[in-house]
Amino acid sequence: MDSLFITILNNAIVASWLIAAIILLRLVFKKVPKWVHCMLWILVAVKLLLPINIETPFGFLPKTKPIPANITVAEVPTVDTGISSIDESINIELAKSMSSDRYASATPMGVYMYIASLIWLTGIIIMLAYFIISFLVIRHKVSASIRTASNIYECDEIVSPFILGLISPKIYLPSGLDARVKECVIAHENVHISRRDYLWKPLGFVILAIYWFNPLCWISYILLCRDIEYACDEKTTKDKEDSWRADYCQALLDCSVQKKMITACPVAFGEVSVKNRIKKVLDYKKPAFWFVAIAIVACLCIAVCFMTSSDRPGIFESTEVAVELEPVSVSVDEISEEPISMNSADIYAAGESSVTMLPEEETVMTQLRNLSPVQDVHMEDMAETAEMVETYQRLMQKIFSRLQEKCSLQWTSNL
After folding, report:
1. I want to staple 371 with a disulfide (CB 3.0 to 4.6 A). Which of 247, 294, 309, 344 is the partner?
2. What rounded mean pLDDT belongs to the chain?
3. Which has the closest alpha carbon to 361: 399, 389, 396?
4. Is 211 helix (H, G, I), strand (E, B) or coil?
5. Beta-strand (E) ranges in 308-372?
6. Smallest Cα–Cα separation from 66: which of 134, 124, 6?
7. Which helix (DSSP H) or strand (DSSP E) does residue 374 occupy?
8. Nearest residue to 154 via CA among 171, 136, 137
9. At 268, is the secondary structure helix, strand, or coil?
10. How many of the other CB atoms lie within 10 Å of CB of 264?
11. Nearest to 409 by CA among 355, 347, 328
12. Predicted structure pTM score
């Protein structure tokens, strides 16, 4: 279960960039048809339901996963969210508090991740239980409804119209509605049915149940419910006369209810932002074609950039620049009577004068003496035995240490 929870966490972090981009895009394109906003939330649903990595040249998301799969068994756990400053702060704290012994049977991160996965699973059960109980309670309320048309029922136990049902949705109306109000309500609910909104809202709640720990997912669901109603109001009233729109607004006022909690079902007529809906209905003007076209192109750009990854660093990741340096030769006269050159004779002379040789190293130095004085020393030439390699490294370290002390040479790389 830990691996599944880590997958969900990674997808929640990655999808948060898409959600944030869509929220900003909604603010920029307030005047576009509201069905465009609903399409944006479909992108979020696809990203949350399909945690797959698609690569494109235009992707903004990093290719690596924010939380590695082996974080529960790593001695020093690390994360890679794509924001360098946040990663550094988190990784420092993880190194201090979550480091573990190599031979420990369980790491602290593994224990915490197991507990977190249990809490996550408990949250899902609570959310789905709320969904099922709400559905059953409403079904019980409308069990004594009277059928007045093919899919229209009237009930004394409800105060606001709504649609109920996933396979064969039905419209339920409060008893005693005025004929004019009933006409507006039925027109509105039929648009919901044609748009399949009775499926989108429960699906959104199920996704919210899986990602209940992410605050942006809660914001997304609330905005989805609003955009569904805004889009339905738009489609219902866009070709109507002003008098019909006035009756529609009155119907919204008559059927409005005080909403106290986020609901999974049903799709209710007067439940979401009645004041704003009335204002939008009265102020509605058909947007220009070019404005809608720009909005659709922006939506496609958001989809490509925030739903795909590339080999480039993430949005806020630092970019490393590779710099190819040309080799530089340095000769220093102050270390010995003659300049040091990288050949076997000089290495032997420097090593013999400044390094106390161990008995087992005498064999290596003997072979060094036999090399040509002008022959450059390479690792391949010295790697006949492991002892020769080790001695070569010691001698080279000693020589360069003396170079640094005498000449105060400091090599730095400023990128």
Report:
1. 344
2. 76
3. 389
4. coil
5. none
6. 6
7. none
8. 171
9. strand
10. 22
11. 328
12. 0.70
Q: Residue 28 has what pLDDT?
A: 87
Residue 104's contacts (CB-CB under 8 Å, 6 or more residues apart) are: none
- Do residues 154 and 146 touch, judged by C-beta distance below 8 A? yes
Residue burial 321-338, b: 16+ Cβ < 10 Å; e: rest: eeeeeeeeeeeeeebeee
- Contact between residue 247 and residue 184 where contact means Cβ atoms under 8 Å apart: yes
What is the distance between the alpha carbons of residues 339 and 348, in angstroms, rounded to a whole number? 14
Report yes or no: 41 and 228 within 8 Å, Cβ to Cβ.
no
pLDDT reported for residue 323: 44
Q: What is the pLDDT of residue 313?
A: 54
CA distances in angstroms from 94 to 71, 74, 97, 103, listed in the order given: 11, 11, 5, 19
**pLDDT band (50, 70, 90) for residue 256:** confident
Lowest mean pLDDT among 27-41, 74-88, 264-278, 295-309: 264-278
Choose from 93-97, 128-132, 165-169 the range with maximum mean pLDDT: 128-132
Residue linked to tokens 């508090």: 97
Residue pair 57/309 in contact by the 8 Å Cβ criterion = no
| Cβ contact 316:80 at 8 Å | no
Task: Give whole-number Cα distances, 272 to 154, 157, 183, in Å.
Answer: 21, 20, 20
What tokens does 139 get?
A: 């079904």
**Residue with tokens 């605050």, as numbered in its chain:** 215
Backbone phi, psi, residue 365, to 5°: -70, -30
Structure tokens given for 393: 């490294």
Map tokens 């996550």 to a residue.
Answer: 120
Judge if the upstream peptide bond of residue 266 is cis by omega within 30 degrees of 0.
yes
Q: Is-contact 172 270, C-beta < 8 A?
A: no
How far is it, in rounded angstroms, from Cα 91 to Cα 314? 18
Question: Worst-scoring range by mean pLDDT, 204-208, 245-249, 306-310?
Answer: 306-310
Please give the Cα distance from 367 to 345 (Å, whole number): 11
Residue 399 or 92, more confident: 92
Helix (H) or strand (E) holding 19, with range, is helix 2-28
Cα 370 to Cα 159: distance, rounded to the nearest angstrom: 103
- The neighbouring-strand residues paired with 316 are 83
CA–CA dist 292, 394 (Å, integer): 71
Which pLDDT value is given to residue 362?
Answer: 58
Instruction: Please give the single-letter amino acid code of residue 39.
Output: M
pLDDT greater than 90 at residue 81: no
Q: Residue 410: what residue type?
A: Q
Alpha carbon distance 66, 210 (integer Å): 19
Name the maximum alpha-carbon separation found in the chain: 112
